[in-house]
Design brief:
elongated; alpha+beta; 6-stranded mixed sheet; 3 domains; 4-stranded antiparallel sheet
C-alpha cells in the first residue's frame, strides 16, 4: 500500500510537471506575430512600448543598421537613460577554436575574382580559332606542369609536375608528384583510390550544382563558341598539392582563382604578378583531403559555385561579384547540396555545424555586405555571417529556387538578391528581409509564432525534377564560440554597428517577465538604424 501511494505521488508530480510544460508551450506558440514582434515607431525623441499579459517571457531589443556604412555607437539610439555599461566586455578568443580551415582563403585570388581584367565581348563569342592548340584528352598516368606559389600569397611562382591519377565524367584529378603514395595514404600523401573517390564524388556534385546555378565557362553541353572552356577539355581540372603558408602549415582547404581563365599576355598587360594554368581548375590541399574528406567534398561544392559565378555574372553579363555576395552564394550552395552527396546537416563537416558556432558569438562583428580582411578572426566572422544570412534566405524564401534565380539574373549584390526575392515573395527585397533577420536569432524550437521568420524551418524545393532541402536547425540548442548556447546578447549600452548588420540587446530585468511591462527608447540619431522589440 505504501509503495502504491509513493507511485501515485510520483505520477501526480509528473503530471503537474508535464502540465506546467504544456502551459508554457501553449503560451509561447499561441502568441501572435504582432504580440511577438513590435516595430518601434518614433513620433518624437522617445517612444514607449507597452506589453500586456506576459507569462515568463523574455524581451529583446533588435537594432538593424539598414545602411552600407558603419554607424557609431552614439548614433544608434538607446534604451532611455542607458548610456554605458561595463557588463559587456569582449575578450580575445583563441583562433584554435576553429575546427576546420577556411574555404578559399587566398586574399590575392579573392581580390582578383572580385576585380578581374576586362574581357572584350568578341573574344567570348568567336569560335575557337585554328591556331588554338588542338585538345587531346589526357589519360591516367599522363604528366603536366602546373604553376603554383611556393607558399600561399608569396607571388613566387614555381612550375611543378603533377600526374593524372583519376578521370571522372566531369573532372580530371591531378596529384602533385610529391603528394602521391602508391600504397597507403598518410600525412600529405594520397593514393590513386582517393583520387578516384574524389572524381566519383565530383561526378555527383556537378549535375546537382549546374542544375540550379548554370555552368562553368565552356561546360554547358553544346556550347558553340568555346566547347570545353579555355583549355578545350570538357572536364574541370582538380589539382591536389600542399596549400601552405610561409611556415609550412596548411593555409586553406582549397580555392578557385579566375586568373586561370586569362592568357599570360592578358595578365601581364593588366600588371598582375600571377601565372596562369589556362584551364577551368580548382586547387585542393592534400593533407585535409586525408583527414577530412567530407569537408573537402563540401569545399568542391563551394568552389564550383565560384567558378560558375565567374562565368555567369562576369563573362556573360559583364558584372563582377563582390566578395560577400559570391561567398554567401557558395555557402548557400554547400548548404543544400551537401546532404545530397552523403553529408547530412548534422555532420560536423556540414556548413551548418562548421559556421554556426562562430556566427552565434560574432554576428554583430561583420556586416552582411562587407568582407573584413583586417584580421583572420574577422575574415572568419564574415564567412560565418554570410553563411547565416544565406541560410535565412534559403529557409524563408524558396530554398534552391531562390538560389537559382539569384544566379540567373544579370546583376550582383543587393540588387541581385532583391530581384530574386521579389520573384518568389511579393514585395520582398534585400532591405525588407534584413529588417526581419533578427527574428531568426530570437525564435527557434517551440517559441516560433505563426508568421515569424526563423532558421528552424525545413524548406524543400524541386528544380528540373531534382529535390533540394535546406534543413531546419535550432540555434538555441547549439553551442556558440566562447561558451554558452544560442545567440550572444549584448547589454543595453549602445555599440557601433557594422554595415547592414543587426545587434541584439537584453538585460536581466527584461527576462522571465510576467504581467504588464513598458520600455521607453530614445530615437537613433542615424535614421538608418531601426528598432524592434521581440518577445520570446
Amino acid at each position: 500500500m505504501k509503495n502504491r501511494l509513493v507511485l501515485l505521488g510520483i505520477l501526480a508530480l509528473g503530471f503537474l510537471f508535464l502540465a506546467a510544460c504544456y502551459v508554457e508551450l501553449v503560451d509561447q506558440t499561441n502568441r501572435t506575430y504582432e504580440e511577438s514582434v513590435r516595430p518601434v515607431i518614433f513620433t518624437g525623441q522617445t517612444a514607449t512600448v507597452s506589453f500586456e499579459n506576459l507569462n515568463r517571457n523574455d524581451i529583446f531589443l533588435v537594432k538593424v543598421n539598414t545602411s552600407g556604412v558603419v554607424v557609431d555607437a552614439a548614433n544608434t539610439g538607446r534604451v532611455h537613460g542607458i548610456y554605458s555599461s561595463s557588463e559587456d566586455i569582449d575578450t580575445p578568443e583563441e583562433l584554435s577554436m576553429e575546427s576546420l580551415p577556411q574555404l578559399g582563403h587566398h586574399p590575392i585570388a579573392r581580390k582578383f575574382n572580385a576585380n578581374p581584367p576586362p574581357i572584350a565581348a568578341e573574344a567570348l563569342n568567336k569560335p575557337r580559332s585554328a591556331s588554338f592548340p588542338r585538345f587531346t584528352a589526357p589519360s591516367v598516368g599522363d604528366t603536366r606542369q602546373f604553376y603554383v606559389e611556393a607558399y600561399l600569397g608569396s607571388s613566387n611562382w614555381l612550375s611543378r609536375q603533377a600526374t593524372l591519377r583519376a578521370v571522372g565524367r566531369h573532372a580530371n584529378i591531378w596529384v602533385m608528384d610529391e603528394n602521391f603514395s602508391p600504397t597507403i595514404n598518410f600525412g600529405n600523401r594520397i593514393t590513386a583510390a582517393q583520387a578516384r573517390s574524389l572524381a566519383e564524388r565530383f561526378d555527383r556534385i556537378h549535375p546537382l550544382a549546374t542544375n540550379i546555378l548554370g555552368f562553368e565557362f565552356g561546360g554547358q553541353p553544346g556550347c558553340p563558341g568555346w566547347p570545353g572552356g579555355v583549355d578545350g577539355d570538357p572536364r574541370i581540372q582538380i589539382l591536389i598539392y600542399d596549400i601552405v603558408d610561409a611556415s609550412g602549415q596548411t593555409a586553406a582547404a582549397g580555392y578557385f582563382w579566375a586568373k586561370d581563365f586569362f592568357t599570360q599576355e592578358e595578365l601581364d598587360a593588366a600588371s598582375w604578378n600571377v601565372r596562369t594554368n589556362l584551364a577551368e581548375i580548382f586547387y585542393l590541399d592534400a593533407s585535409i583531403l586525408n583527414t577530412n574528406p567530407d569537408f573537402m567534398y563540401s569545399t568542391l561544392i563551394h568552389e564550383l559555385q565560384h567558378m560558375i559565378n565567374f562565368n555567369v555574372k562576369f563573362l556573360r553579363h559583364g558584372v563582377a561579384s563582390p566578395v560577400w555576395y559570391d561567398e554567401m552564394l557558395s555557402m548557400m550552395t554547400e548548404d543544400i547540396i551537401a546532404p545530397l552527396i552523403g553529408i547530412p546537416a548534422t555532420s560536423r563537416d556540414h556548413i551548418i555545424q562548421h559556421r554556426t558556432p562562430r556566427f552565434l558569438r560574432h554576428y554583430a562583428d561583420a556586416g552582411i555586405t562587407e568582407w573584413r580582411t583586417d584580421s583572420l578572426s574577422n575574415t572568419l566572422n564574415s564567412y560565418a555571417n554570410g553563411f547565416a544570412f544565406g541560410a535565412f534566405l534559403l529557409r524563408n524564401f524558396g530554398g534552391a529556387n531562390l538560389l537559382r534565380r539569384i544566379l540567373a539574373n544579370n546583376t550582383v549584390g543587393i540588387a541581385s538578391i532583391s530581384l530574386a526575392l521579389i520573384e518568389v515573395s511579393q514585395g520582398m527585397t534585400f532591405e525588407r528581409a534584413l529588417a526581419r533577420y533578427g527574428e531568426a536569432l530570437i525564435f527557434s524550437g517551440r517559441a516560433v509564432p505563426e508568421g515569424v521568420l526563423t532558421l528552424d524551418r525545413t524548406t524543400t524545393s524541386t528544380v528540373n525534377g531534382v529535390t533540394y532541402t535546406a534543413f531546419a536547425f535550432n540555434i538555441w540548442n547549439m553551442f556558440r564560440m566562447g561558451g554558452g548556447m544560442g545567440p550572444y546578447f549584448f547589454d543595453l549600452a549602445p555599440r557601433a554597428m557594422r554595415p547592414h548588420s543587426i545587434s541584439i540587446h537584453s538585460t536581466s530585468a527584461w527576462r522571465n517577465r510576467s504581467g504588464d511591462f513598458s520600455i521607453t527608447l530614445e530615437r537613433p540619431d542615424n535614421a538608418n538604424v531601426a528598432f524592434y522589440l521581440m518577445v520570446r
